[in-house]
Design goal:
By secondary structure, this protein is an alpha/beta fold. It contains 15 helices and 20 strands.
């Protein structure tokens, strides 16, 4: 059922026509849905790493609403993307980690069997739905080639539903795996420049297809989803993007020795040991920044085509990343944690006549809000199954308040699960299997170095978060949260891991045998 309410008219100075939300919806606006893989908060609009060069994202943020406190529903590709596209909270579906099947096997989960995904919602209401690249969890040749998208949602998929991304170019073996390195690393944990033009890169080809579709005349409204794979690892992009970041300009990242002593001691510290032992930290930072800048260039090409199409004033643009990325913070690499660098994501909305150009929202929002927001902007009622909340009120008034924190859930190795709530000021974490809690004050501790959960001064705040978590996640029980954490001992106002091992004593991962073909 479509809705047409009276809304406040936001005058956009010279950028868009003076049209209201109801007028935008009446035109059945096009939707450009941009999904970025593994992009963290280092980009310019989120004030991350100062040397990051993201001119296209900077320009887009100046035209959009930036959600500076946005978080994924789960810090893993499959879980995050399924939640975004279905609108259902991961703790309800049970998909809180990566799964590697091909095809939409998530439809076998009873509550997902018959729901309308966001693309099906628009398709069923007369839209032409197109997708290219990584939208649901998928991989491309020469890796495992798979796609978890539901075929019923798309009129066309580029390159195809069976092969959802073009061939991914790799750097030479001698660049990414020198014989002089000590220890071993995961076969995809690689970095280095590729001596090719952008046109050889999979993302460039996907964006070229999307540009063509944006410029094409059509009789139906368009829902176009474009997935950009970088900066997902391996951090291997053309040389010119590495040249943007001379190694002597790479800053030291802020860390704290023995940071994990009062927190979860995770299982990826061996990756950090490998990077430290081989003195590669700055080189990996360089490679990740290069990958961000490559992705930024592709975003620029996509938005340029939208402008040239003459339909920018009739198109809702939403841009998001499926989760963040640790580059050594908290001795972690990749994602798969419940800390800020895993959960915080880029999230921007440009809705002509509704969003305020250059506005910044600091209220906590979730990527679960993407589905209901698009539906709201298009003039429809939100489906009952959606767990997110439309951000349209925040588009109208960036200073309005929200009642709930952003909820993120994740299933760690050994099939154990944790949850985090990110509010406007604090992050709270609860790990189900050992009852450990963490609390961080982002006003005074942006690096999340000091766990305040066991400090008597914060009892009231911890209690509020506990009550919110129990109310929102059925599987979590208050009596379990209140148990003393297993494997930790209270020392003064701090909780400390009983058998904590400093990083200097962590063992290097064993050397992996080299294999030809897929790394």
């Amino acid at each position: 059922m479509r809705k047409f309410g009276i809304v406040t008219l936001i005058i956009v100075q010279g950028l868009f026509p003076e049209i209201s939300l109801s007028m935008l919806a009446a035109k059945q606006p096009d939707v450009l849905f941009i999904a970025i893989d593994d992009m963290n908060d280092w980009i310019g609009p989120l004030g991350g790493l100062e040397i990051a060069k993201t001119p296209n994202l900077d320009r887009f943020a100046a035209e959009s609403a930036t959600f500076a406190n946005a978080h994924c529903a789960s810090p893993a590709c499959a879980a995050s993307r399924l939640a975004n596209m279905s609108g259902v909270q991961p703790s309800k579906t049970g998909v809180m980690q990566n799964v590697w099947y091909d095809g939409p096997q998530w439809r076998e989960i009873p509550m997902l069997k018959d729901i309308e995904t966001v693309e099906q919602f628009f398709k069923n209401r007369g839209y032409e739905t197109l997708a290219g690249g990584k939208i649901y969890h998928s991989l491309a040749p020469p890796w495992l080639t798979s796609n978890q998208a539901d075929p019923d949602g798309w009129d066309f998929y580029y390159p195809s539903l069976a092969v959802p991304m073009p061939y991914q170019m790799n750097a030479p073996e001698k660049v990414i795996n020198p014989d002089s390195w000590k220890g071993g690393r995961h076969k995809w944990f690689t970095w280095g420049p590729i001596q090719v033009l952008d046109e050889k890169m999979a993302d460039h080809q996907t964006v070229s297809w999307a540009r063509y579709e944006l410029m094409r005349k059509r009789d139906k409204p368009l829902y176009l989803a474009c997935g950009i794979f970088r900066p997902h690892m391996p951090w291997e992009v053309p040389q010119k993007y590495f040249d943007l970041y001379p190694i002597e300009d790479i800053p030291d990242l802020e860390i704290e020795e023995n940071d994990l002593q009062d927190a979860l001691v995770h299982t990826r510290r061996g990756w950090h040991k490998f990077v430290l032992e081989n003195q590669q930290w700055k080189h990996v930072v360089q490679a990740y920044l290069a990958s961000i800048s490559f992705a930024d260039a592709q975003i620029g090409r996509l938005l340029e085509a939208l402008d040239e199409s003459g339909k920018a004033n009739e198109t809702i643009v939403v841009l998001w990343s499926d989760h963040g990325m640790h580059i050594g913070e908290k001795e972690n690499w990749e994602k798969f944690t419940l800390w800020e660098e895993s959960t915080r994501v880029p999230f921007f909305v440009r809705a002509p006549g509704v969003s305020e150009p250059g506005s910044v929202v600091t209220q906590p929002v979730s990527l679960l809000d993407v589905y209901p927001s698009l539906v709201d902007l298009a003039g429809y009622d939100t489906p009952e199954h959606c767990d997110g909340v439309s951000v349209v009120p925040l588009l109208r008034n960036p200073h309005s308040k929200r009642k709930h924190s952003a909820l993120t859930s994740f299933t760690f190795p050994r099939n154990v699960t944790g949850h985090t709530l990110r509010g406007e000021r604090y992050r709270y974490i609860y790990y189900e299997w050992n009852s450990l809690e963490e609390l961080y004050d982002h006003r005074n501790d942006k690096g999340e170095y000091t766990n305040l959960a066991y400090d008597p001064k914060h009892v009231k705040i911890v209690r509020q978060f506990r009550e919110e978590l129990v109310a929102r996640v059925d599987r979590v029980k208050l009596e379990e949260i209140e148990k003393a954490p297993d494997g930790y001992t209270l020392s003064g106002n701090r909780i400390l891991a009983d058998d904590f091992v400093p990083i200097a004593k962590v063992l290097l991962p064993p050397v992996r045998p080299k294999v030809s073909g897929i790394r």
